[in-house]
Oxidoreductase (Candidatus Thermofonsia Clade 1 bacterium), 311 residues
Amino acid sequence: MGRFRWFVLGSAASVAAYWLVRYLRPEHSPLVLKQAVVIITGASAGIGRAYALAFARRGARVVLAARRADLLEAVRAEIATYAADVLCVPTDVNDDAQLERLVRTTLERYGRIDILINNAGVVMQGMLHNHDPQRVRAMVNTNLAAAINLTRLCLPSMLAQRSGTILNISSVGGAVPNATTPAYTATKAGLNAFSSALRRQLEGTGVRVVTVLPAYTDTDMLSPVIQDYVRNLGFTVDTPYYVAEHTIDALLKGEQEIWFGGFTTRAVAWLERHVPFLSTLLQRWLITPEVIAMMEEPLVAQKADPQGAQQ
Ligand SMILES: NC(=O)c1ccc[n+]([C@@H]2O[C@H](COP(=O)([O-])OP(=O)(O)OC[C@H]3O[C@@H](n4cnc5c(N)ncnc54)[C@H](OP(=O)(O)O)[C@@H]3O)[C@@H](O)[C@H]2O)c1
């Protein structure tokens, strides 16, 4: 038999073996949410707040972290109607000492960490040359370096208990580079790569790493003007509650990459992966200078009113 045939047969056998192993592999130990200790960064608003409510409703003990202490207390009050055990630790994830305090306080109170949700995030949209360099550094740190460092701090206790779940809240934008958000896209693509590499490093330790890729979601991060624009293009805008509920369903099923977005988002992601030049053409057609200017508007407003800035 010629070499080519051996090559084809060998490849087919490898693919078959791979699928067989995937199909037969033992199920991971089931995730128990009741009494689980869940740290959520960015829990004061949007998707993080929705995670806090969804996990607490299932009996988890949630640890809420974000900068705005008054909003954390408001989330605690919402949760109090059905779960009493909530810890608020006002935290700026860009401050290493505050990250250490968050982990220390959690361990002192509960003695363990079962789930870490790296959710805190900020966005910068528009032309890169208009970005403020300090805000770029802060964004890279918030979205990527802080998530890596907080994971690093939580890992020793997870490894010691031989169980744990790290949920990195990335974005579909990290897999489909978007011309309106090059710097933000870089942070989310970095988070995707971090998750994949760490998952390989932690194989066999009992610690799972899960990447969540929300699509357009109705939070403060997405201005009403942009929401209208993307809806008109046929994209769906999810609610944060849907993101939280679907994440938990997918987690319980053992998924390691949890994607969001309706048919249009999935079609765009498919195009990006399999026919990237068409994806480029599509963005050239859809993302005009007027669209980019519209994306910059919230940034201009934040510059005029730095107190109101989210970053
Ligand atoms: N909304 C979307 O369309 C969308 C799409 C894809 C992915 N995502 C991702 O989903 C995650 C949550 O975003 P969201 O939509 O819920 O936005 P959001 O409503 O603006 O909430 C962002 C959260 O991050 C926190 N945060 C920001 N900087 C922080 C810092 N330095 N330290 C601690 N906390 C900080 C904020 O709390 P404080 O201001 O109180 O600190 C807030 O709770 C982000 O990672 C985002 O990239 C969102």
